Amino acid sequence: MVPITLYTKSTCPFSRKAKQLLDEKGVRYEEIAIDLNPSKMDEMLAASGGRATVPQIFIAGRHLGGSDELQKLEDTGQLDALLERPGAQPSL
């Protein structure tokens, strides 16, 4: 399985939604809760091109965006391919 990283906040419903989708798919991911570890905020901003909202989702080191983008990939059938082939180019 490809590496997945989520920058989240523990109180964010969009973070919970993204984690729930990945949990339902049975994939593992690294969660970095920026509200519990504020020093990671700068890391998230740098990696996401300055986006300060959460979640910020990365699959195989590639920035996908947030919960809406993850759900769009799922709805269009592209998420499974991306999880299996990290080089796949989804159309967001």
TrEMBL record:
Keyword Cytoplasm among UniProt keywords: yes
CDD domains found in the cross-reference section: GRX_GRXb_1_3_like
Sorted UniProt keywords: Cytoplasm, Electron transport, Redox-active center, Transport
Pfam family, one: Glutaredoxin
Physiological role: Has a glutathione-disulfide oxidoreductase activity in the presence of NADPH and glutathione reductase. Reduces low molecular weight disulfides and proteins.
Family according to the record: Belongs to the glutaredoxin family.
Full protein name: Glutaredoxin
Species of origin: Stigmatella ashevillensis
Gene responsible for this protein: grxC
